[in-house]
UniProtKB/TrEMBL annotation:
Residues 137-293 form the NACHT domain. Gene3D superfamilies: P-loop containing nucleotide triphosphate hydrolases. This is NACHT domain-containing protein. It comes from the Eukaryota. The keyword Ribonucleoprotein does not apply. Keywords: Leucine-rich repeat, Repeat.
Length: 679
């Protein structure tokens, strides 16, 4: 892979995390420790080795910071924008309910009712002697954030070692020293490693270890590992487990970044003591950042043709993709109203863009990468070897930057730890998932596809892929395709409808009291995931069929993921029968998600819903009109306990409202203004 120019390219996520004077100054850190007034010869050797190690750490951080995405350059000074940082309680030790299940699509909302407080960057720098985790959804800038933290800690004169799980999937056993020093900084003397490690053992309170991307580890930490000696040669997962459990460097600060699900599964002895969640940018900040790299004409064009694409810009990765793909597009932006359509548009435009060069056909490269991505996803792999690439028909010496990124890992002292000195990975896991879908749709033989759908596609492992497959195939149906693609469309449609019928029937059996809560919750999640698949493809015939099996009593999942809302709304638009109960209780819906659901309900027939419960959500005064619009549709009872901030509850009975004890907030004023009967 050719060296990328740092003068003409800018990584947009850098701007997202450029948050404080500490971060800015960290770019020019000079290590200038004051040497202790009195040291022995051995202490002096350790001190000198440690200072050298500090400089090596800074050098690594500077090198990592120079990696850039091609095709995007800033027009002016990058604005400082701030992703929200919240301390949350969901992952604290001993606090995770045993029946909680992780679904890949649920990571944004998994913890949103567990927020303790909003914090600033300095709060993280003030932490000492703990194990903390930083969780965020895909593309939110976790890696860049962790690098910025490392630079800031170095400025504060703390030894900060930054490691990526992606590069630490060692297959052979190794010692703790090899893991932290020998393989991270290869090529130095035994005396150097020994002196540095000795200093670290004596000065654990001055150490910060940052391990980035737990979700990209190819080993599981679910099983409890016994305490081990720091000189023992063991699998890397045992070293990680004992670091998390504070068996090593007890007084050091350990920081792990991850998608939320990987932290959720850590056993109690290895759970973080403090967890921070990174949020998306506000729409205003995403526009400010967008305009630093693109013209306002492009912003207006996207807003006119595909407004949902702008909301996707709140995620730094999506913002990069959208700007890069439309800097020199080969075709119009098109309808990118679903994630599937966004990725299809972006990948197509990137393929034709003059900003991205490849010595051979990019179409040929993409076809090879699709096969490679599918087999890697099937095996749960995120790290690939040169052999993997060659076996997949990809030349590892000329690989294209935007799709696969190259990491040159210098050969370790112990050559058994890595085969060769080069590892490859897709530049983001979402690219791998999208390319996997492309293989399933375009490259997989029909018979193999049918077997894959029946045996694998509807398992949890394929949740994201499943939605993209439905979106891509059902979109293709509108283009009047034939042959293998038509067979795949018809088979997937038949199987999806079959799954909807089966899950709906089981759901109704449980609604009649024939199962336990955990099973009911799992089925609810499964049913709404199927609705998401229907919504992703926007196929009205499937949505209409889905309504035939729609239960007359519907309870949305607790902590309803906003990604599930569009699919549910798409199905709800096609409902013609009476619904006895529609419960949105305790879904923690925000103002936007509730507005989306209420907008569909307001178009339903008068009295079509018997009882509706919207209690315990996060509604705002802007949702008052949405609530009022429900009155025409709800026939018997509208329950509204604690659905507005500061409100202790209202419910509607026989056309009037009754106030709950201690109720206060916005509802009283607004109901009086609209002349509703309050009693």
């Amino acid at each position: 892979m050719a060296e990328q120019s740092t003068s003409s390219t800018v990584n947009i996520t850098d701007a997202v995390l450029n948050q404080s004077p500490v971060i800015k100054d960290a770019e020019i850190v000079n290590i200038n420790y004051t040497q202790p007034p009195s040291t022995s010869s051995s202490d002096e050797d350790e001190w000198n080795s440690m200072r050298k190690l500090m400089k090596l750490c800074i050098s690594y951080l500077e090198k990592e910071g120079k990696l850039r995405l091609q095709g995007v350059s800033a027009k002016e000074q990058i604005p400082v924008v701030h992703p929200a940082i919240h301390e949350i309680t969901y992952y604290d030790r001993d606090t995770v309910p045993v029946d909680e299940r992780y679904e890949p699509e649920g990571q944004n909302e998994l913890f949103k009712n567990k927020i303790k407080r909003e914090v600033c960057f300095q709060d993280l720098l003030d932490q000492k002697g703990k194990f903390i985790s930083i969780v965020a959804s895909a593309g939110s800038g976790k890696t860049v954030f962790s690098l910025r933290l490392a630079k800031a800690f170095s400025l504060l004169k703390r030894l900060c070692i930054h490691l990526k799980f992606m590069y630490a999937n060692y297959e052979e056993p190794l010692t703790l020293r090899q893991f932290l020093l020998d393989n991270k900084f290869p090529g130095y003397s035994e005396e150097f490693y020994t002196a540095c490690f000795s200093w670290m053992q004596k000065n654990a309170d001055k150490i910060v270890l940052i391990l980035d991307g737990l979700d990209q580890a190819q080993y599981s930490l679910k099983k409890i590992s016994q305490n081990i000696n720091d000189k023992a040669c063991v699998p890397v997962k045992d070293l990680i487990f004992n670091l998390c459990g504070k068996h090593f460097f007890r007084n050091s600060l350990l920081i792990i970044t991850s998608r939320p699900h990987a932290v959720l599964y850590l056993p109690e002895p290895a759970r973080p003591q403090v967890t921070y969640a990174l949020g998306d940018l506000s729409l205003e900040e995403s526009k400010e950042l967008f305009l630093a790299f693109a013209d306002e004409d492009l912003w207006r064009k996207i807003k006119k043709s595909s407004g949902q694409m702008l909301s996707m810009c709140r995620n730094p990765l999506m913002l990069q993709m959208i700007i890069s793909s439309n800097t020199d597009p080969s075709e119009d932006i098109g309808d990118a109203s679903t994630p599937t359509r966004l990725f299809a548009t972006v990948m197509n435009n990137l393929t034709y863009s003059r900003n991205f060069q490849y010595p051979e056909s990019l179409h040929k490269l993409t076809r090879s990468l699709q096969t490679l991505a599918f087999h890697a996803t099937k095996e749960g792999k995120v790290v690939l070897t040169a052999k993997d690439l060659r076996d997949g028909g990809v030349d590892p010496t000329t690989i294209h930057d935007i799709v696969v990124q190259l990491h040159c890992h210098r050969s370790p002292i112990n050559s058994r730890l890595l085969e060769g000195n080069t590892k490859f990975f897709f530049c983001h896991q979402t690219f791998q998932e999208h390319l996997t879908v492309s293989y399933v749709v375009y490259g997989m033989p029909v018979e193999e596809f049918q077997d894959f759908v029946e045996t694998s596609l509807f398992e949890d492992h394929w949740t994201v892929v499943r939605r993209f497959v439905c979106g891509l195939l059902f979109d293709l149906e509108s283009k009047a395709v034939s042959g293998d693609l038509l067979q795949k469309i018809e088979f997937l449609k038949k199987y999806l409808i079959q799954e909807l019928e089966i899950i709906s029937e089981k759901y109704m059996e449980m609604e009649r009291g024939q199962s336990v809560w955990q099973d009911y919750k799992a089925l609810t999640d499964k049913l709404f995931d199927l609705y998401a698949c229907v919504g992703e493809g926007k196929d009205s015939s499937i949505a209409t069929k889905a309504t035939e099996y729609l239960p007359t009593t519907i309870r949305l999942p607790i902590l309803m993921n906003s990604n599930l809302v569009p699919g549910f709304c798409f199905v709800l638009k096609h409902v013609t029968k009476q619904l006895d109960v529609l419960s949105l209780m305790n879904c923690q819906l925000d103002a936007n998600s509730f507005h989306e659901i209420a907008s569909v309900i307001k178009e339903m027939k008068p009295g079509q819903i018997g009882m509706m419960d919207i209690s315990y959500n996060d509604l705002q005064p802007s949702n008052i009109d949405d609530v009022i619009g429900l009155f025409r549709v709800v026939r018997d009872e509208l329950v509204m306990w604690d659905c507005f901030i500061g409100d202790a509850g209202w419910w509607m009975v026989d056309g009037g409202f009754q106030r709950g004890a201690g109720c206060e907030g916005e509802m009283l004023y607004w109901m009086k203004e609209t002349n509703f009967d309050l009693h």
